[in-house]
Specification:
BirA Bifunctional Protein, domain 2, 11 helices, rod-shaped, 341 residues, binds 3,4-dihydroxyphenylalanine, seven-stranded mixed sheet, 2 domains
């Protein structure tokens, strides 16, 4: 072994380093020449110690030079490769800041929620506050304090999910009337939107969970004409300025007198169509003057105060307004259905 052959080895190594196309290739060259036990240069160096004195010096220097040369070539190639990788990554991740943004698909309100919000906004203009009642309610508040004792036939129309003997899922938002009176003495104007539950088998117009909005107004001197004016204002705001309302006598245990309210059909204008059953009228809510006993149950003195109440179903209004034939569509969360409204 002569110093020149070490230089030759270094030259070959340098050429191989230059030819390496990635960091693994560079590492392979390093191992081939400089690996601690069997690298070619390492092996060559092992014999230096056995050389005669005068040869040992030049050989040692030649070894150091060759090693330094190879290490430098390795380092340079490594950093060159790293730079290209970074440049490639930067190129791949490059953002065109002038590119128009991809427009995000925004959701929208559920049809029933939309109607509920419209109802809230209309009554807010009349000074009504929105309050919420509990969905899990006492039998006492859902029924008894609304003049519906345990054996009352009115319970038949509201087949109930009982949780215990005394607790149930509210079948109507009317119990919120009682809670509103408990919470605040008159004058009182509140509406209560929310979910109600009945043990009905789902069909086109029934669902075990649906929505109601309850309204209650209690003050001194509230009369039936206040109720009528309020309902007229509501109907015109909700269904259009040309709408007329029709009041029909009805029965609810918690109001006396009780009425059902029809609005002139907002689809055919009253001429008669499929939706209004050619009658020209559509039933939209139940209402009445709060029964004196219900006022008393709400800790309100019926000799001093009177009030009216009403209740409606935003799901039903949404069905009428948007021409939804099957109410189950409202709850099946099929995006194709919900997106078209
Ligand atoms: N709670 C009644 C129902 O579910 C609707 C109703 C009728 C509410 C008359 C009222 C009312 O406040 O005065 O059928």
């Amino acid at each position: 072994m002569r110093p020149e052959s070490l230089a030759g080895l270094a030259a070959t190594a340098r050429a191989e380093v230059a030819a390496a196309v990635d960091l693994e290739g560079v590492e392979a060259v390093r191992l081939r020449y400089l690996a601690r036990r069997d690298g070619e240069l390492t092996v060559a160096a092992a014999s230096i110690g056995r050389l005669p004195d005068q040869e040992r010096g030049p050989m040692g220097r030649a070894f150091n030079a060759a090693k330094a040369e190879i290490e430098q070539a390795l380092a340079e190639r490594r950093s060159a490769l790293l730079q290209t990788t970074r440049a490639q990554a930067a190129e791949a991740e490059w953002l065109d800041l002038s590119d128009p943004a991809v427009s995000l698909e925004l959701g929208h309100l559920h049809p029933s929620t939309r109607i509920q919000r419209e109802v809230e906004a209309i009554f807010a203009q009349l000074g009504y506050r929105v309050v919420e009642g509990p969905e899990v309610e006492l039998d006492e508040v859902n029924f008894q304090l609304l003049n519906i004792p345990p054996e009352h036939p009115a319970r038949d129309t509201q087949d109930t999910f009982y949780l215990t003997e005394t607790l149930l899922l509210r079948t109507q938002t009317s119990p919120a009337q009682i809670r509103a009176m408990w919470a605040q003495p008159p004058p009182l104007r509140v509406i209560t939107p929310g979910r109600v539950f009945r043990r009905d088998n789902p069909d086109a117009t029934h669902f075990p969970m649906f929505h109601q909005v309850e309204g209650l107004c209690v003050d001194e001197g509230i009369s039936f004409s206040d109720l009528k004016g309020t309902l007229e204002y509501f109907s015109r705001s909700m269904f259009g300025p040309d709408r007329a309302i029709r009041l029909r006598p009805s029965y609810f245990p918690f109001t006396e007198p009780s009425i059902e309210v029809d609005v002139s059909c907002f689809l055919c204008g009253g001429a008669g169509c499929r939706v209004c059953g050619s009658s020209g009228w559509i039933e939209i809510l139940g209402a009445g003057m709060v029964h004196p006993q219900v006022l008393r149950n709400g800790r309100v003195d019926p000799d001093r105060y009177s009030g009216f109440a009403f209740g409606m179903g935003p799901d039903r209004i949404a069905m009428l307004k948007y021409g939804i034939a099957d109410g189950r569509d409202l709850y099946e969360n099929d995006l194709r259905f919900l997106r078209q409204i």
